[in-house]
């Protein structure tokens, strides 16, 4: 397969102004008639020449140009294109194609889910529906007519507004027509048809327009739409308030489908969602699910402006819409809940997934330079690091400057397909700040490292901070230029109070927290009027996606844990200390030294647990030890077993010492108040279940009784799942009965069954691999359903390091077999699974060779998709 390069971008030779589509949906064959108004692009680099339309996996029935049916000799059809040599300057083209959506297991293009029809066109699915210039810089106005059996497909939806519908014809079929007044790229096209029911509400915009809001679901699920609808209304209000952005059509629709490769899709006026991000009620959804629904509903809604009204010129610019929209949804969730708690969760996610990507074989810039398969670039780098890059602009410009930049961006580019550079230019121009060097965040891959040291001069009352930056090589980028890094910081005096900050040469007065512009490889910042030796609080709020190295003592970290005015850094200090102690224990274990957890650390935990003023959600995060994955990242060679054993040991040691406090916390956070999904209630449940988790590390009779009791009696799925997850790790007799009971209760709720699969897949018991392999044959498992694959196969390979990396290699063989099975059915899902091998070089030689052998087996398999080939072959490079 050939790579596509950003440097080869050229404007499209032709433009398409209008698209008139007619779908005739059938059980065996679906016929699509497309009428396009095409003209040569006046801005094209060279004369228009042949028209080459993208298209694949369809049967071409006919082609007509300006009303005249073409003879097959007048065009040529390839496996991925339709070429018309030398068409006129402007013309109409009518193309008829036939598809078999029921055979489409890739879930891209037009496919069937639960008997309904559904489309997914991002990134390049539209070309599986009809021949088209399937690229985001071709924006057209769409009119879509759908005809189908009225009983089987009573609901037929597409983008925009419903402009016509005709009742049953003699043959029992009916027809609807939708018109979208906004020009859009083909990836935002959507069609849904089938038996669906809807929940309806409305929203009055700031300017007084009433918008109809509908959520379509399969019958029986109406009672699980309330949270998604409330989230949508909150998102609409937030975007008006924070960015002055109003919704622009008369109707906004969400459709929830069970078979979907990703979370959701922002098609204009007709968002299509994975059921996982719509359906939620306390009995079936955990707090994490509720938060996920709120965030994804918001994210897709926010795309209406950042993505749809202003879209990407080409797919290299994907972060233009995704990074910006993730930043917007993160800000929304922060405003709805606790800002520090949200920031901690986002940084944990970045470190767990993006940092490893950025230091592995798939490392790529936020704006990639090349790809083989664009679907492989919907990555955590493009999304989450992209959001960090936007956040840094927000930090550098301030909230007002950023808002001015957004206003200018829309003023300049509404209705256009643009680049990341256009976005930065709008920010720069609006705020009058030079972001020239800052642009390197878009072009250079890798996680920069920031080494900071401080020197206090008591006589001169100065504090000199020396900041050095570096960035490791990444594929294709052996050396890097310095980044422009916003370094937010404060200096704490011995009482824990922030010291006013003034740099040498600056006039007063001074604030107590500020952002330094780090631009050189090494820079010195000298603070004056510093009365005492301070403890620096660095990178407050995680002001840049970097790895910070600072020579803190354990006492410094304990001090920051207790006193830092920045809540994120209070958490961070605890994590840094815990990481240090746990890695020391891993070394002790490797050297056969006895394990002992520092009493001072347990005391610090105890203070957090007993602090009545602490937000329980924050306390739960502060009391969570760094994950096995994160600890592994800090080691040159990941000691899978050592990390697992030491972390388990530390949890037991903490639980043993703090048992009474943990029990008291469990009881205090329990309560019998009615279920609520507000931030406070979520926080109490998080802390309660954290306490239960520690207590279960002891597995004594009282803990087991609490856990089993919670499993049986809890009303909220959060609590049921917390208890079941803990039981699943044990050898208790109650384990099997709980798993059986859970399945019997919930076997008709696919999203709950997914939880049942993933809990078993993530069990630390040695027999887990055999159990997971057996579950592939369970009647509820369906390899064609991405949610089931992510729950069982993804849960095992991505969420169970100690079992997946079992030194025998069985986990690796299992994953490779599943990748090959999926490759034939759904390459996008297969490629997400094969990514779990990407970090093979971080392990010991034995595991390395086992993983490499599986990657080689995959690459050598005939018929490999572009998706899997790209990841597997780059992993081996
Ligand atoms: N913009 C959407 C991306 C997406 C997608 C991409 C490739 C294949 C399937 C897909 N489904 C959705 C989702 C988003 O980021 O909002
Ligand atoms: Zn998105």
UniProtKB/TrEMBL annotation:
Residues 554-877 form the Peptidase M1 alanyl aminopeptidase C-terminal domain. One of its GO terms (molecular function) is aminopeptidase activity. The keyword Metal-binding applies. InterPro entries: Aminopeptidase_N-like_N, Aminopeptidase_N-like_N_sf, PepN_Ig-like_sf, Peptidase_M1, Peptidase_M1_dom, Peptidase_M1_pepN, Peptidase_M1_pepN_C, Peptidase_M1_pepN_C_sf. CDD domains: M1_APN. Residues 446-549 form the Peptidase M1 alanyl aminopeptidase Ig-like fold domain. Its cofactor is Zn(2+). Keywords: Aminopeptidase, Hydrolase, Metal-binding, Metalloprotease, Protease, Zinc. It comes from the Bacteria. Residues 228-441 form the Peptidase M1 membrane alanine aminopeptidase domain. It catalyses: Release of an N-terminal amino acid, Xaa-|-Yaa- from a peptide, amide or arylamide. Xaa is preferably Ala, but may be most amino acids including Pro (slow action). When a terminal hydrophobic residue is followed by a prolyl residue, the two may be released as an intact Xaa-Pro dipeptide. Its EC number is 3.4.11.2. Residues 90-188 form the Aminopeptidase N-like N-terminal domain. Pfam families: DUF3458, DUF3458_C, Peptidase_M1, Peptidase_M1_N. Gene3D superfamilies: 2.60.40.1840, 3.30.2010.30, Neutral Protease Domain 2, Peptidase M1, alanyl aminopeptidase, C-terminal domain, tricorn interacting facor f3 domain. Belongs to the peptidase M1 family. PANTHER family: PUROMYCIN-SENSITIVE AMINOPEPTIDASE. This is Aminopeptidase N.
């Amino acid at each position: 397969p050939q790579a596509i390069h950003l440097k080869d971008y050229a404007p499209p030779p032709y433009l398409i102004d209008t698209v008139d589509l007619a779908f005739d949906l059938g059980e065996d064959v679906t016929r699509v008639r497309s009428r396009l108004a095409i003209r040569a692009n006046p801005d094209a680099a060279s004369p228009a020449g042949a028209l080459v339309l993208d298209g694949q996996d369809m049967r071409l029935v006919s082609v007509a140009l300006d009303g005249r049916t073409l003879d097959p000799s007048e065009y040529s059809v390839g496996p991925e294109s339709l070429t018309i040599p030398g068409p006129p300057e402007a013309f109409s083209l009518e193309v008829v194609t036939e598809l078999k959506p029921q055979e489409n297991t890739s879930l891209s293009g037009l496919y069937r889910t639960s008997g309904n029809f559904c489309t997914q066109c991002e990134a390049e699915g539209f070309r599986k529906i009809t021949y088209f210039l399937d690229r985001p810089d071709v924006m057209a106005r769409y009119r879509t007519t759908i005809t189908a059996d009225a009983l089987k497909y009573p609901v037929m939806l597409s983008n925009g507004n419903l402009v016509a519908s005709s009742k049953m014809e003699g043959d029992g079929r009916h027809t609807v027509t939708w018109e979208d007044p906004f020009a859009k790229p083909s990836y935002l096209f959507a069609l849904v048809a089938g038996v669906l029911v809807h929940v309806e509400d409305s929203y009055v915009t700031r300017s007084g327009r009433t918008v109809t809001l509908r959520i379509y679901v399969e019958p029986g699920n109406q009672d699980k739409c309330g949270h998604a609808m409330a989230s949508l209304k909150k998102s609409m209000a937030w975007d008006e308030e924070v960015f002055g952005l109003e919704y622009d059509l008369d109707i906004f629709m969400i459709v929830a489908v069970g078979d979907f490769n990703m979370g959701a899709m922002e098609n204009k006026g007709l968002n299509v969602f994975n059921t996982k991000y719509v359906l939620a009620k306390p009995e079936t959804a955990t707090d994490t699910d509720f938060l996920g629904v709120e965030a994804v509903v918001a994210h897709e809604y926010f795309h209406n402006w950042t993505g749809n009204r202003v879209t990407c010129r080409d797919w290299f610019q994907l972060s233009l819409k995704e990074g910006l929209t993730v930043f917007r949804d993160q800000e929304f969730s922060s405003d709805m809940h606790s800002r520090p708690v949200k920031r901690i969760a986002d940084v944990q996610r970045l470190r767990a997934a993006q940092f490893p990507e950025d230091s592995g074989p798939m490392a790529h810039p936020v704006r990639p330079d090349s790809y083989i398969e664009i679907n492989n670039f919907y990555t955590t780098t493009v999304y989450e690091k992209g959001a960090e890059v936007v956040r840094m602009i927000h930090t550098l410009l301030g909230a007002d400057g950023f808002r001015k930049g957004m206003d200018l961006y829309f003023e300049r580019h509404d209705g256009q397909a643009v680049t990341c550079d256009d976005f930065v230019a709008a920010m720069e121009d609006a705020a009058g700040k030079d972001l020239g060097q800052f642009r390197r965040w878009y072009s250079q891959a890798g996680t920069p490292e920031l080494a900071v040291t401080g020197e206090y001069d008591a006589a001169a009352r100065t504090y000199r901070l020396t900041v050095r930056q570096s960035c490791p090589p990444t594929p294709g980028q052996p050396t890097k230029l310095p980044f422009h890094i916003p370094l937010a910081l404060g200096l704490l005096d011995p009482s824990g109070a922030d010291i006013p900050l003034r740099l040498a040469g600056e006039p007063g007065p001074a604030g107590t927290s500020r952002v330094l512009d780090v631009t050189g490889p090494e820079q010195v910042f000298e603070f004056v009027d510093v009365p005492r030796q301070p403890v620096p609080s660095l990178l407050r709020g995680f002001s840049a996606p970097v790895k910070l190295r600072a020579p803190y003592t354990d006492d410094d970290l304990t001090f920051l844990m207790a006193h830092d005015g920045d809540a994120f850094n209070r958490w961070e200090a605890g994590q840094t200390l815990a990481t240090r102690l746990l890695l020391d224990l891993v070394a002790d274990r490797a050297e056969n030294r006895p394990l002992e957890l520092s009493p001072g650390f347990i005391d610090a935990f105890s203070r957090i647990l007993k602090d009545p003023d602490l937000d329980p959600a924050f306390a739960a995060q502060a009391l969570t030890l760094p994950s096995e994955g994160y600890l592994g990242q800090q080691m040159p060679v990941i000691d899978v077993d050592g990390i697992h054993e030491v972390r388990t040991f530390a949890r037991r040691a903490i639980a043993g010492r703090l048992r009474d406090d943990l029990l008291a916390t469990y009881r205090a956070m329990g309560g019998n108040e009615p279920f609520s999904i507000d931030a406070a209630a979520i926080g109490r449940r998080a802390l309660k279940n954290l306490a239960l988790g520690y207590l279960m590390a002891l597995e004594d009779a009282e803990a087991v009784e609490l856990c089993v009791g919670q499993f049986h009696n809890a009303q909220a799925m959060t609590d049921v799942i917390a208890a079941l997850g803990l039981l699943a790790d044990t050898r208790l007799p109650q384990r099997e009965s709980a798993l059986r009971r859970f399945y019997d209760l919930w076997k008709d709720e696919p999203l709950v069954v997914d939880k049942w699969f993933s809990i078993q897949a993530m069990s630390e018991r040695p027999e887990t691999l055999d159990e997971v392999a057996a579950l592939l044959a369970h009647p509820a498992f369906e390899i064609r359903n991405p949610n089931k694959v992510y729950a069982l196969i993804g849960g095992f390979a991505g969420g169970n390091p100690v079992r997946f990396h079992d030194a025998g290699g069985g986990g690796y063989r299992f994953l490779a077999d599943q990748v090959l099975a999926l490759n034939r059915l759904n390459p996008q899902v297969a490629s997400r699974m094969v990514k779990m091998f990407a970090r093979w070089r971080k392990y010991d030689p034995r595991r390395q060779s086992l993983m490499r052998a599986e990657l080689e087996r995959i690459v050598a398999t005939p018929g490999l998709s572009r998706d899997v080939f790209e990841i597997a072959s780059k992993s081996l490079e």
